[in-house]
Specification:
By secondary structure, the protein is of the alpha/beta class. The chain is about 45% helix and about 15% strand. The chain has helices at about 5-10, 35-50, 75-80, 95-105, 120-135, 150, 165-175, 190-220, 225-230, 240-250, 260-275, 285-300, and strands at about 15-20, 30-35, 50-55, 70-75, 85-90, 115, 140, 145, 155-160, 180-185.
């Protein structure tokens, strides 16, 4: 039986947490590969914490602004990781991460800490861990919970799994980008952190898609969305995430994205796949994936995932 599940059944906590200290003394050279919404924010947090930061992105223009924050912008993954104490990958998916690490391989030193923060799925993590073994890297499965705002503030929650041997080098990285690290195992290859992330994201996506559907239905039935929000205010059906996503839709504040539609659709497919592999049919996650993909097809792929709202209308919402 899974120890975490057994502990849950017995009513006791089995997952330790690491909270951010009030100061930090360990300065590292950290390479951040991937400077999209999350990667750029995490690189800035690392620089603010006093680390030497090297960044690379497939589209260099997305990395260039980080030079103003003190980061060195590298032209290739290999240049970015040369002599690094830790490598942090924040790319779109598992295949993109593996391809980038292959390109970095000539400059990777055995024993280097590698924290992969991509939501890559359980199969993807296994492939990344295999690469790490081949190159003698200390591998940490380390996806994060949070969107653009918490990332920019260094207030993410890091979900981590990996060996005790390198934690003295990876912990300062996690402390710089987050306020809490939740350890989910000692073997990154087992994808304990990614499995926890998929469970959490299944809830996030369900709430986001349901919020959009509810507002769409309200409009279709000529009910002011505010009347629905007032109806549930302060009760057990109310929640902060509903308020946040509803406000983004109603105010038209879908760009810049906190978490993009295309990325959410990718995560939804990974959730569905994980369920299939373990004998669980996830109808809500499957429908969420389809709805997000439909929104992307309507031109909303780079907007916040709340833009799944638009997938409810064949010709766009009523004026």
């Amino acid at each position: 039986m899974d120890p975490a599940r057994e502990g849950h059944r017995r009513g006791r906590r089995t997952t330790p947490t690491h909270r951010k200290p009030t100061f930090m003394t360990d300065q590292l050279t950290v390479s951040v590969l991937g400077t999209g919404i999350m990667g750029a924010a995490m690189a800035r947090s690392l620089a603010r914490a006093g680390h030497t930061v090297r960044v690379w992105n497939r589209t260099r223009a997305k990395a260039e602004p980080l030079a103003a924050d003190g980061a060195h912008v590298a032209g290739t993954p290999a240049e970015a990781v040369e002599s690094a104490d830790a490598v942090l990958t924040v790319l779109h998916d598992g295949p993109a991460t593996l391809d980038t690490m292959h390109r970095a391989a000539p400059a990777l030193r055995p024993g280097t800490v590698w924290a992969q923060s991509t939501t890559a799925g359980t199969e993807g993590v296994a492939e990344l861990a295999g690469f790490a073994r081949e190159h003698g890297l200390l591998f940490y499965d380390a996806p994060v919970l949070g969107t653009r705002g918490p990332a920019e503030a260094g207030q993410l929650t890091v979900l981590a799994a990996g060996p005790a041997e390198g934690r003295d080098r990876v912990t300062p990285v996690f402390d710089a980008v987050g306020t809490r690290t939740v350890w989910a195992g000692d073997d990154g290859a087992a994808a304990g952190a990614t499995r926890l992330k998929l469970v959490a994201n299944s809830w996030v996506l369900a709430v986001t898609v349901a919020a959009g559907e509810t507002l769409g239905l309200a409009e279709a039935l000529d009910v002011a969305p505010e009347r629905f929000l007032d109806l549930v205010a302060g009760g057990p059906l109310d929640m902060g995430y509903l308020r946040a996503k509803a406000a983004m839709i109603l105010d038209g504040r879908l760009s810049p994205a906190q978490f993009a539609v295309t990325t959410a659709a990718k995560d939804a497919r990974l959730i569905v796949r994980a369920g299939e592999q373990h004998g669980v049919r996830l109808d809500v996650a499957a429908a969420s994936a389809e709805r997000l993909e439909r929104a992307a097809g309507l031109g909303h792929g780079d907007e916040d995932m709340a833009a799944a709202y638009f997938a409810g209308f064949d010709e766009g919402p009523a004026a």
